[in-house]
Amino acid sequence: MTSQYKIGLLHTGIREDERMILDQSKARGVAIEPIDIRSTIFSPQSFAQFQPYDLFLQRCASGAKADQVLRYFTEYGKPIVNNLELSELCKNKYATSLRLARAGVPTPDFALAFTEDKVLEAIDQLGGFPVVIKPVAGTSWGRLMGKLTDVHAVEMILEHKEALGVNHQSFYLQKFIDKPGRDIRVYTVNGQTYAGIYRSAAHWITNTARGAEAVPCPITKEISEICAAAQQAVGNGLLALDLFETADGLMVNEINHTMEFKNVVKITGIDIPGKILDYCLEEIKNHESTK
Ligand SMILES: Nc1ncnc2c1ncn2[C@@H]1O[C@H](COP(=O)(O)OP(=O)(O)OP(=O)(O)O)[C@@H](O)[C@H]1O
Ligand SMILES: [Mg+2]
Fold it and tell me: Which CATH number covers residue 148?
């Protein structure tokens, strides 16, 4: 039986993750249609074609393009997973750090500064070298981030960042966390954590896209609790959190709102596409009940 609802899957090319969602929707009888945002016009005149959809699932690889499309559907009152507010918060690492810190969720100490002098002062405030410098937004897979070990590295990196242009001139710094050769990537929905992997590497950057080895991570009470607290701080949605293990307990490094999951499904056997679809259907019902 096909569900009465229709979901639009917004994309900029069907990757393996999106293919898994489409396959799972067939198996579950959920009506879902891929919408390539590159072959569509988003104007007031073109909205009629989107009216039949009950919800849009944002799976674009290009975050910058997706941002505009999220604005479009938000303006027309269509539910989106994840919604614009949550997406804007999570895509900006500085905004996420601020929200977590203000909510009392453990997260590495951080600072933002705009000049070399203030960066050096901020590094002192963070307890000294080493620190990590990251783009506030617009990158993934550990790209364009650096471990600053001394004042010469600061000079060199800031000079290069100046050359990269305006998007790279807000200097977001995080205390370097001496983690045990791995971090933890966990998947949550509505504050419930349902899948996790350890990502281990000899390098301090442990993204699987950079070659880290991934193995299943059991979801402990501590993991569940910190993820529930983080989700409560940022709002409900489908999230992937990066956690660090420290001597003082877990910390949330960052929160991803358009996560890749294909390898996690392969490693853990957990049906993440099914969780995504369940959440979409739940959101449609929530939206209907508020109409
Ligand atoms: N403050 C830190 N201390 C130690 N290691 C860090 C720190 N920040 C990041 N790392 C390492 O670098 C990796 C990538 O950092 P982060 O998750 O912040 O950015 P990203 O992966 O590029 O973003 P996304 O997950 O959205 O692709 C982390 O998984 C972790 O292994
Ligand atoms: Mg990450």
Answer: 3.30.1490.20
